[in-house]
Design a protein that fits this description.
single chain; 7-stranded mixed beta sheet; globular
């Protein structure tokens, strides 16, 4: 049943220090207790976006709460989603901001779709200070 997850060596994790949309989104998700936050740098791998923010909520309600927090926080920072999918079922909510895409998963959907494996060649990005003190 267990399958190995391709973890990238620490040397391949790049810090992201700017106060950009993906950083703000990661902080908002973290404040709603999202787990397993991962940011993938897709700038060299894809033409449709620059980053994926991937995270997990423990329940349908938490997945929606994380999505709501990300959207509300980014709206306060004058960033609107171009498209939102999956909100009603809350198994996988996708918020497309153009230069980055936020994926909020239920645990089962995250394992099933396994975006980290699909995009395993994309470098992981470290978000500095995910949750402000």
């Amino acid at each position: 049943m267990g399958r190995s997850v391709n973890k990238q060596p620490e040397s391949e994790v790049q810090p992201l220090e700017t106060e950009d949309g993906v950083t703000i989104a990661a902080r908002a998700a973290s404040e709603k207790k999202a787990t397993d936050l991962v940011v993938l740098d897709l700038r060299k791998a894809a033409s449709f976006t620059e980053y994926f923010l991937i995270c997990t909520g423990a329940s349908t309600r938490q997945v929606q709460a994380i999505s709501n927090a990300v959207e509300e926080t980014l709206l306060k920072n004058r960033k609107r989603p171009l498209h939102i999918e999956g909100y009603s079922s809350a198994e996988w909510i996708l918020l497309d901001y153009g230069d980055f895409i936020v994926h909020v998963f239920s645990p089962g959907s995250r394992r099933f779709y396994d975006l980290e494996r699909l995009w395993r060649d994309a470098p992981r990005v470290e978000i500095k200070n995910e949750a402000p003190e």
